Amino acid sequence: MSPLDTMERWLRPVAMPYLAAVIAGAQMVMWLWVLISAPSTPGALLDPITLVPSQVMAGEWWRLLTFLAVPPNVHPLWLALMWLCLVAIGSELERGWGTARFNLYLLIGWLATCAAAFARPDQSTTNGFILLSVFLAYATLFPEATFRLFLIIPVKAKWMALFTWIVLGIGFVLGDGAAKLAILASVANWSAFFLPMVIRRTRSRTVQAARRAVPKKREPFHRCVVCGKNDLSHPELEFRYCDKCEGAPGYCLEHLATHQHIRREAPLHTP
What we know:
Strand content: 5-15%
Radius of gyration: 34 Å
Helix content: 55-70%
Shape: rod-shaped
Number of helices: 12
Strand order of the largest sheet: 1-2
């Protein structure tokens, strides 16, 4: 049993169904609350629930949980699309994996993000890992699924995932140590679930490509049964076949006229 299977079994009694919808709903409620109560100063309501490690170490432990409910600071249209996407693909993963395994996937991402946040104790940390890691998991399992970019352009999930990995790679190369750690944390759950599978597939494809690259040894088409010369070792020779010999074997011209015909021995008859 793998470590993931063991952790899934431990988590099964307390697993929360529809967790993606719960997170999206919490962000929606928080966004509406800010819109109604303090549309001009959203920070006044969101700052007390944002994940800031220095504040957590000061005793405000609830930030480790409440930052999941902070809505991303994007246009309302994109915000609605993000929530719909999170609920849709999250529900699809939960149906395929089961509630406990999907909870475990998000739990690993949450733990990694919280741990990486302490590299910058005075800066706030977003919950962007949720949608990012959920999408990457979905694209890995369903690479041919089609999304409508800008609600119009059809794009397969594998190409959107490739673009996402490129952006993450650029950010990892150009970012400082804390940024590198944050990027690694955002894909920690994907790595735990899928990296071994990707490595196995890559090795298998490499082995298959190497086997195809090795030229197959060509077998001779003509061979003299007397001297063993063939059309590969002696391409200048000509070969003929004797239909008077049993099985019509091949001979080079040197032995074609001088060979003794091969005959099948007659069976012995008992009187």
